[in-house]
Specification:
Distance between the termini: 112 Å
Number of strands: 0
Low-confidence stretches: 116-121
Number of helices: 3
Helix content: 55-70%
Mean pLDDT: 79
Strand content: under 5%
Order of helices and strands: HHH
Length: 126
Amino acid sequence: MFGIGMPELIIILVIALIVIGPSKLPDLARALGRGMAEFKKATQELKESLDLDEDLKQAKDDIVDSISGIEKSIEAEMAEPAEEQEAKYEDFDEMIQDYEKSKESREENTEGGETHTSEKEKPEDA
């Protein structure tokens, strides 16, 4: 404790007893003890606050790492060339012709606004 050994501590207590007197020495010791307890409490709160700051900093770093990891994966997906599909049509005219054929086939199936029903779907007259 501050490099003070037992003999030095005894000498300091004897001098305090002579200077202060036996009646006020217990009050002084009590006040000194309370002061030391408050100092320890304040020191402990400061340590906890610093630990909390470190925890918050670590949590912030984790979140930043997570976000940057997401950004990197998105960038990697964007950088990868998409698989190219084979062109179904060689030019625009072919696509138009195919569209017109499909349109004509739909019109033939629904000619006159009537829909074709199968034998099972027709209602039975009893």
